[in-house]
């Protein structure tokens, strides 16, 4: 079992920055991939960024490239999502999710989810 707890969401003006944190506990193997998935009102969930637990591979959806950075810290079992140049369209609930696979092909790849944290970007 893997438990994920997110924090760091909030209200920010467009152009601002936020950093989300996800503390992972339980049995996380080196083959796992940790992802940040968001769901905006009326829209489906989408993966915005992933990082392998080994840290050797990252992925970003096109809309976040150059603005978001995903990283993980083994010393405190935490995955971060640093978000810069935020836009109103980034407003969503952001979930931390864990997949036992080194490559995430879809939302069905995730076996574990956090409770989510709200990010609101005002214009």
Structure description:
The chain is mainly β. Helix content is 0%, strand content 52%. The protein contains no helices and eleven strands. Strands 2, 4, 5, 6, 9, 10 and 11 form a seven-stranded mixed β-sheet that branches. The radius of gyration is 13 Å and the shape is globular.
Overall body shape = globular
- Amino- and carboxy-terminal Cα gap: 40 Å
Task: Give the strand tally.
Answer: 11
Radius of gyration: 13 Å
Count of DSSP H/I helices: 0
Give the amount of beta strand, in percent: over 45%
- Quaternary assembly: single chain
Please outline the major beta sheet.
7 strands, mixed
Average pLDDT confidence is 94
Fill in the keyword field for this structure.
123 residues, single chain, mainly beta, globular, 7-stranded mixed sheet, 4-stranded antiparallel sheet
Which helices and strands, and how do they pair?
Elements: E1 2-7, E2 10-13, E3 18-26, E4 33-39, E5 46-52, E6 58-60, E7 68-73, E8 78-83, E9 92-99, E10 112-113, E11 117-122
Parallel strand pairs: 2-11
Antiparallel strand pairs: 1-3, 3-8, 4-5, 4-9, 5-6, 7-8, 9-10, 9-11
Give a quick summary of the entry.
The protein is an all-beta fold. It is built from no helices and eleven strands. The strands form two sheets. Strands 2, 4, 5, 6, 9, 10 and 11 form a seven-stranded mixed sheet that branches. Strands 1-3-8-7 form a four-stranded antiparallel sheet, with no helix packed on it.
């Amino acid at each position: 079992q893997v438990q994920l707890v997110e924090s760091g969401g909030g209200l920010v003006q467009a152009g601002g920055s936020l950093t989300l944190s996800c503390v992972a506990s339980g049995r996380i193997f080196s083959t796992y991939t940790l992802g940040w998935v968001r769901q905006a009102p009326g829209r489906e969930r989408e993966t915005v960024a992933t990082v392998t637990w080994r840290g050797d591979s990252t992925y970003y959806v096109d809309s976040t490239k150059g603005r978001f950075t995903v990283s993980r810290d083994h010393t405190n079992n935490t995955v971060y999502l640093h978000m810069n140049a935020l836009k109103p369209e980034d407003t969503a609930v952001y979930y931390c999710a864990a997949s036992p696979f080194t490559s995430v092909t879809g939302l069905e790849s995730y076996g574990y989810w956090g409770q989510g944290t709200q990010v609101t970007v005002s214009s």
